[in-house]
Amino acid sequence: MSVEGDFDPEALSKARQEVESGSIKARVRALYKFTRPHTIRGTILASIAGTIRALVDTPGAISTVNWSILLPRAVVGMTALLLGNAFIVGINQIYDKEIDEMNKPFLPVASGEMSKRTAWIAVVVSGVLGPILVKAFFPPLLFQLYCFGIFLGGIYSVPPIRTKKNPILAGMTIATVRGFLLNFGVYYAVKDAIGAPFGWSPKVAFIARFMVAFASVIAVTKDLPDMEGDKAYQIETLATRFGAKRIAQGATVCLSLNYVHAILTGLLAKSTDAFRMIPMVGGHLALVSMLIFRYRQLNPESLASIKQYYKHIWDLFYLEYGLYTLI
């Protein structure tokens, strides 16, 4: 079982045979799995939420915006982000093939559905085309930040740096890319597209802080289902060091404090217009309640339960972007 779906050896064997027989559908399906769909959902939701937030924050933007200009740029921007996402998760699968054969045998490189050669082609195309699109359609600052994100995503997996081997560096990498660069970049790009100056509104500042903290927790909990393989290949993570029970406890506490921070941010805002209280306070109360409920269902001795707990953390991550458009 994984965030993407269940591990079924017979289904994987059949999928390999279909790829080897030349099935286009099977190859497309393998490519889709290669992009790690749960990370794609996060990227798409961040893009949509950031776009809506930027338009709502700019008086008159929705009624006066030139959609014939904004929509094509939005499509290009989304494509560039998905290519960056594919580059980062793809190069990780190439260098983690042996570990994934134990931890994530459902992934296409580990299962044999996709050869390393095909994986390298997908990674190189993504890593080249993404920056080209950003360079051509967006301001220099966004191009620089995009390339910085690609660089961080690359050294996370590629030797000799391979920051994933250090739990602190791994957490900082994921928090920077998914917590800050993605959310800031989308908001800045939309503001630029509609000709409005960028400003750190209370909502943008909040989501940047909140998602950096949330992504840091994801950076730690993502290793919970992978402890067996990480130990075998001497990859030191906080999960291998402290165990599933303590990491889940710590993650739940950290996320709960993050939600408390969100609630207090709404209640203590200097301006009554800074946030809408029902989604800001009530929405985060509901999400922290879901978190605690899911944690109480966790059995740290069961790998299936651990994976389900990790999946619920991603579900909360997705839901936060829904709240972001409402606060």
UniProtKB/TrEMBL annotation:
Keywords, alphabetical: Membrane, Transferase, Transmembrane, Transmembrane helix
Topology relative to the membrane: Multi-pass membrane protein
GO molecular function: prenyltransferase activity
Annotated TM spans: 74-95, 119-137, 143-161, 168-190, 202-221, 247-268, 274-293
One term under GO cellular component: membrane
Listed InterPro entries: AtHST-like, UbiA_prenyltransferase, UbiA_sf
Family: Belongs to the UbiA prenyltransferase family.
NCBIfam families: PRK12887.1
Record's protein name: Uncharacterized protein
Originating organism: Fragilariopsis cylindrus CCMP1102
